[in-house]
Amino acid sequence: MNSATGSRVVVTGATGNVGTSVVRLLSEDPEVGSVLGLARRLPDWSPPKTDWAAVDVASERADLVGHFSGADAVVHLAWAFQPTHDPATTWRTNVLGSLRVFEAAATAGVPALVHASSVGAYSPGPKDRAVDESWPTHGWPDAAYCREKAYLERALDIFERDHPGIRVVRMRPAFLFKRASASEQRRIFGGRFLPGPLARPELLPFLPDVPGLRAQVLHTDDAANAYRLAVRSDVRGAFNLAADPPVDADLLGEMLGTRRVRLPRSAARSAIAAAWGLHLLPASPHLFDAVLRLPLLDCTRARAELGWRPERTATEVLQEFLQGLQEGAGAQTEPLRGRKAG
């Protein structure tokens, strides 16, 4: 880090849910001298100390080395969740694009690479206790998202072996939400034409209680703070990130004031598979299978080595996100642009 002018940080996928929070926190950090945000579409948003460049990491024509030259750190967030019906397309962006980012960072001599992994990289694990970062990262093979995240964990194993001088950090957060991402995530997982105003507790006749459907969430800004701390420190390796308490039907039912009705896994999956097969629901049944098996995360290492703690509970995160759904909330970037429906 250049102590006189502050560090230079490049962020890929800088206009999405995580990217906008990471860019904002880095731009407000006095130890950061400049931020370069890379995105396929330039935003109508100009935070302090931030420049933008239109870059598609999946494109062989992208000059990633040129953009990375002189950077003190690269934060790699670029990711495509859709189309779930065409895993070859997401593989091109998520895996091949990430490999280009890794290679370009090495070629440009970037000293630190902070990569967005996920709880989705983990192999099936327990729901009654939390696991640390030593839990296997082989993903759930049927889900493209998990398969791609797990593949990149193996790629980074090789990258670290071949480039021991580069400090590599792998962030493995739980599911990330914030008010400004509500419209984007509704479109990604619920569909373009699902009206946000329908996300009102009084309109839910009951809440499905599916056995094993227990997971963790985290506010995107809290995750972004962990990225900021990783850029500023000398840590290496993986960090779990999640907020308490774990989310299940009991917590959601209490929060929404809605009665719970037990629903077998097979019935829930069949409904999701039918809607996905008819292209009515973007979220695939394979991702549903993965969520049923993902372990809970122990975040002790992030607290001890990064000095990181989430500022919001899981309940607060979901309440904010639900309000954003109802209001069609968004932000001044193309991925997060607010829309109520359509």
Tell me what the structure shows:
β4 (73-76), α3 and β5 (112-116) form a beta-alpha-beta unit. The chain has helices spanning 17-28, 64-68, 87-107, 144-162, 182-190, 220-232, 249-256, 265-277, 285-293, 300-306, 314-327, and strands at 7-12, 32-39, 50-54, 73-76, 112-116, 130-131, 167-173, 175-177, 207-209, 217-219, 237-241, 260-262, 296-297. 38% of the residues lie in helices and 16% in strands. The protein has a 7-stranded parallel β-sheet, with helices on both faces. It has 342 residues and is α/β, with parallel strands linked by helices.
Identify the notable features of this structure and list them briefly:
16% strand; single chain; alpha/beta; seven-stranded parallel sheet; two-stranded parallel ribbon; 342 residues; globular; 11 helices
SSE blueprint:
Blueprint: E1 7-12, H1 17-28, E2 32-39, E3 50-54, H2 64-68, E4 73-76, H3 87-107, E5 112-116, E6 130-131, H4 144-162, E7 167-173, E8 175-177, H5 182-190, E9 207-209, E10 217-219, H6 220-232, E11 237-241, H7 249-256, E12 260-262, H8 265-277, H9 285-293, E13 296-297, H10 300-306, H11 314-327
Parallel strand pairs: 1-2, 1-4, 2-3, 4-5, 5-7, 6-13, 7-11, 8-10, 9-12
Helix pairs in contact: 1-6, 3-4, 8-9
